[in-house]
Amino acid sequence: MLVLLAFIIVFHITSAALLFIATIDNAWWVGEEFYTDIWRICQNNTNCTEIDDTFSGYATIQAVQASMILSTILCCIALFIFVLQLFRLKQGERFVLTSIIQLLSCLCVMIAASIYTNQHEEIHDNNRLYYEGTFEGKYGYSFILAWVAFAFTLISGIMYLILRKRK
């Protein structure tokens, strides 16, 4: 039982780390001479422009930003509640609250990655001044980590739902 508990905690911490990296790091759309993320656009690896309200499609980027931040916060809260429930739940009860919060985190990261997947071409087309030379790029590792974090949070949310507290 102790090994299972350690695995679940490590899996949850890994999920949180993936969410932090995907949210903070700047590799959602990359190319040879540029990289972009949900916060800024950098060309020639030095010339960086922050994404602000002058940006066309700023509301879309804000939705991605907010969803990723909310997902990360919910994942951390779920870990905290899991630790609390380890000491507060009676024997045989399920970790339902932890599961619900973790599944909400899963939903938020899915929403963010889906919005970016669907809208990245439109955002690039409407902001040619900022995205000049970035059309030959591909999805970067932060974007891929967001989708991996989606899978991890989904799996851990389901694990918490199935898991019962034992002695």
TrEMBL record:
Keywords: Cell membrane, Cytoplasm, Golgi apparatus, Membrane, Nucleus, Signal, Transmembrane, Transmembrane helix. Residues 1-16 form the signal peptide. It comes from the Eukaryota. Its main location: membrane. The keyword Transcription does not apply. Gene3D superfamilies: 1.20.140.150. GO terms for biological process: actin filament organization; actin-mediated cell contraction; apoptotic process; bleb assembly; blood vessel endothelial cell migration; cell-matrix adhesion; early endosome to late endosome transport; embryo implantation. It is found in: Apical cell membrane; Cytoplasm, Perinuclear region; Golgi apparatus membrane; Membrane raft. InterPro entries: EMP-2, PMP-22/EMP/MP20-like, PMP22/EMP/MP20/Claudin, PMP22_EMP_MP20. One of its GO terms (cellular component) is perinuclear region of cytoplasm. It is a multi-pass membrane protein. Pfam families: PMP22_Claudin (PF00822). The chain crosses the membrane at residues 63-83, 95-119, 139-163. The keyword Membrane applies. GO terms for molecular function: integrin binding; protein kinase binding. Belongs to the PMP-22/EMP/MP20 family. PANTHER family: EPITHELIAL MEMBRANE PROTEIN 2, EPITHELIAL MEMBRANE PROTEIN-RELATED. Interacts with PTK2; regulates PTK2 activation and localization. Interacts with ITGB3; regulates the levels of the heterodimer ITGA5-ITGB3 integrin surface expression. Interacts with P2RX7 (via C-terminus). Interacts with ITGB1; the interaction may be direct or indirect and ITGB1 has a heterodimer form. Functions as a key regulator of cell membrane composition by regulating proteins surface expression. Also, plays a role in regulation of processes including cell migration, cell proliferation, cell contraction and cell adhesion. This is Epithelial membrane protein 2. It comes from Phascolarctos cinereus (Koala). The gene is EMP2.
